[in-house]
């Protein structure tokens, strides 16, 4: 498999994605079969927690929720920072909330779990020994991150205030979409969907995972006990499908146009 290595992430760049679940072994089995991930434990400060790897390189993290915590499962992106404590202060002063941290994860680094003013949850990661996702551009790796929210105009100001992004909105009366950039490099997007925002989820960050064949991967999701919420379809960036794992964590699988070949 060809892999594209990633160095230390620029502050504000999505650098890691993590999932907290109720049944860790079953979840490992699902994603291992879907994406070809292997798993290693740790850091131990996060409790039952494993890192997913491709060719020995870190891709994502999966942890187990404490017994009795009946929380919805969701993939959470982490944005890189050089100082988790200072960025957490900027989150609160800009109208967001901090739920967890800063919390030291041993020698790996420090993390914060926060939410923007619309309630969308995201993380902050101050890297030490663990840089975050170290391979992209191949099947089984995060391909893109998009905030699905009611409207983007006020929320984009929050992310610009905290992370200093440049913003590139689509000028359209019926399409509310903004791309976040660091320098001239797109790193994430905001999609305002108005009343189409799911009532059971509210505003949320969506993680896109690269696959070799979207239709085949969607069938595999179903075979493994997951669900296809929106059938494969061709979009601007490639062929994609909205799916959920057996515990209900929603994500998008995509065959990005021009993605690396095995």
Low-confidence stretches: none
Q: What is the multimeric organization of the chains shown?
A: single chain
- Mean pLDDT across the residues is 91
Order of neighbouring strands in the sheet with most strands: 3-4-5-2-6-9-8-7
| Helix content estimate | 10-25%
CATH architecture annotation name of the largest domain:
Roll
- Counted beta strands: 18
Q: At the third CATH level, what is the topology name of the largest domain?
A: 2,3-Dihydroxybiphenyl 1,2-Dioxygenase, domain 1
Q: Report the end-to-end length measured between terminal Cα atoms.
A: 5 Å
* Series of secondary-structure elements, N-terminal to C-terminal: EEHEEEEHEEEEEHEEEEHEEE
The Cα radius of gyration reads 17 Å
Number of domains: 2
How many helices does DSSP assign? 4
CATH class of the largest domain: Alpha Beta
Structural class, from helix and strand content? alpha+beta
General form = globular
Q: Largest sheet at a glance?
A: 8 strands, mixed
> In what range is the share of β-strand residues?
35-45%
Going by CATH, what is the homologous superfamily of the largest domain?
Answer: 2,3-Dihydroxybiphenyl 1,2-Dioxygenase, domain 1
Give me the secondary-structure topology.
Blueprint: E1 4-5, E2 14-21, H1 24-35, E3 38-41, E4 49-54, E5 57-64, E6 75-80, H2 84-93, E7 97-104, E8 109-115, E9 121-127, E10 135-136, E11 142-149, H3 153-163, E12 166-169, E13 176-182, E14 185-192, E15 204-210, H4 214-223, E16 227-235, E17 238-244, E18 250-256
Parallel strand pairs: 2-5, 6-9, 11-14, 15-18
Antiparallel strand pairs: 1-10, 2-6, 3-4, 4-5, 7-8, 8-9, 11-15, 12-13, 13-14, 16-17, 17-18
């Amino acid at each position: 498999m060809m892999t594209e290595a990633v160095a230390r992430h620029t502050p504000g760049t999505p650098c890691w994605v993590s999932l907290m679940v109720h049944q860790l072994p079953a979840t490992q089995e699902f994603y291992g079969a879907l994406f070809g991930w292997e798993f290693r434990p740790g850091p131990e400060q996060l409790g039952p927690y494993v890192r997913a790897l491709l060719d020995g390189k870190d891709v994502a993290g999966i942890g187990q929720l404490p017994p009795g915590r009946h929380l919805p499962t969701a993939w959470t992106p982490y944005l890189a920072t050089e100082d988790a404590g200072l960025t957490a202060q900027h989150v609160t002063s800009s109208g967001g909330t901090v739920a967890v941290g800063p919390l030291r994860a041993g020698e790996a680094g420090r993390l914060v779990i926060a939410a923007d003013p619309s309630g969308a949850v995201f993380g902050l990661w101050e890297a030490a020994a663990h840089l975050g996702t170290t391979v992209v551009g191949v099947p089984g790796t995060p391909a893109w991150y998009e905030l699905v929210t009611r409207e983007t105009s006020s929320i984009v100001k929050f992310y610009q205030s905290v992370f200093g992004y440049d913003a590139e909105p689509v000028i359209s009366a019926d399409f509310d979409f903004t791309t976040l950039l660091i320098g001239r490099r797109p790193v994430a997007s905001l999609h305002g969907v108005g009343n189409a925002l799911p009532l059971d989820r509210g505003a949320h960050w969506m993680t896109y995972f690269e696959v070799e064949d979207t239709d085949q991967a969607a069938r595999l999701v179903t075979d493994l006990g997951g669900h296809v919420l929106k059938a494969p379809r061709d979009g601007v960036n490639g062929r994609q499908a909205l799916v959920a794992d057996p515990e209900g964590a929603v994500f998008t699988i995509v065959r990005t146009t021009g993605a690396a070949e095995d």
